[in-house]
Structures are given as C-alpha cells and as structure tokens.
Amino acid sequence: MKNQLPPGQFETEKWPVLHQGEIYTFNKETWKFRLFGEVKEEVSLSFDDVMALPKTVSTIDMHCVPTWSKFATTFEGIALREFLSLTSLKEDVNFVKIYGYYNGDPFGYSANLPLDRLLGDDALFVYRWKDTNRDWEDISPKHGFPLRFIPPASFYLWKGTKWVSGIKFMKEDEEGFWEELGYSMTADPFKEDRYR
Predict the structure, then answer these.
(1) Quick one: which of 38, 55, 91, 119 has the fewest CB in 10 Å?
(2) 101 Rama class: left (phi>0) / alpha (psi -120 to 50) / beta
(3) 98: which strand partners?
C-alpha cells in the first residue's frame, strides 16, 4: 500500500497543519496518559513512563480528508501494542478510542478505531519525524507535540489524534469527535469513506 494514492486525493510533499480548537501547551508535570475502559485495572502513566517504552521507527503514508496525501514520512514513536503490555484487557475488546486535548480538556477529542488493525509498526504514538526534505525533528505543537497518534495508511488522518492523553478500550464501537459530526466510522481513504 506504500505510495498508493487513494481516489480523490492529490500528493503533497508538505505536511499541512489542520486542527480543531486551541493548540495544547505541554506541561510535563501535569501531563498523564491513561489506559482505561474495558481493562482489569486502569493505568496512569507519566511522560517519562511513556518515553521509557520501546521505540519503533516506521514510514507511514498519510491521507487527509481535505484530499491531500503525503508519502515517505518516517516517524519515531511508541507502537500502540506496547501499551497493551501494561494492562490486561477484559474479554471481547475489539475497539479503542484514542483521546487528546481539546480546548484544555484532556479528553475533549477522540477518534475511534478497530484494535486488531493497530497492532503493527504503522500505528504509532509519535514524537519526531523526517522525510526526504528534512532530517529528524520533533513534531511541532501544531502537529501534536509532545505525542501524536499516527494511524495506518488505511485510515484518513482525522483518526490521528493530536496531543494524546489516553486510550479507552471498548467492546463495542463508539463515535469519536468527528464521527459525532457525521464523518465516517471506518474512514477508509481507498474507498473514499469520508462521511456517513
């Protein structure tokens, strides 16, 4: 699927900035990352706890619903599967909601995704990136610093929560921020699955 342009998309070498609400100002002392929902015991992690987890480097294509696609972007971050090793899920957990800050509320933004498609190297909580035009650099506050979720290329990028604050594990699918406003629950760019 690498470098495959979905229908209705155009290729760009830039990484356009799109976000809803205020840009979160990182405070290491108050920042927490929660694992909750259908878990046997909730987990709360500090920034240092998260950054001590094993790292993954992966090149992930990005497809955004306003019709741009960016190829050959390499990210370094923590794979979602690393968080699974920190908690025990209850039976029949099939979905997650990845939360992020929205206008000061650490759980004001969310995006829903199927868990089984997030277990590879292309589902990362990223903190730095590079591409063919630049060397490694931290993601900017506008792109989600200190930590932003980048989903696999099989999802539109609105599923890539900025300023992440936690993962809710769920048995049944639930609408996230944009889904409540009429966006697709599944968000497959190769099917132009933008809206309901």
Answers:
(1) 91
(2) beta
(3) 111, 167
What pLDDT sits at residue 1? 53
Residue 163 forms beta bridges with which residues? none
User: Alpha-carbon distance 166 to 169, whole Å?
Assistant: 10
The DSSP call for residue 137 is E
| Structural tokens at position 99 | 């939360």
Q: Are 167 and 179 in contact (CB under 8 A)?
A: no
Give the best-scoring range by mean pLDDT among 4-8, 62-66, 112-116, 184-188. 112-116
- Strand ranges (E), 103-178: 105-114, 124-131, 134-138, 148-150, 164-170
Contacts of 85 (CB under 8 A, 6+ apart): none
Instruction: Map tokens 């900017």 to a residue.
Output: 140
Banded model confidence at residue 75, pLDDT cuts 50, 70, 90: very high
pTM: 0.95
For 86, the 3-state DSSP assignment is coil
Name the β-bridge partners of 3.
none
The residue among 96, 118, 65 whose CA lies nearest residue 174 is 96
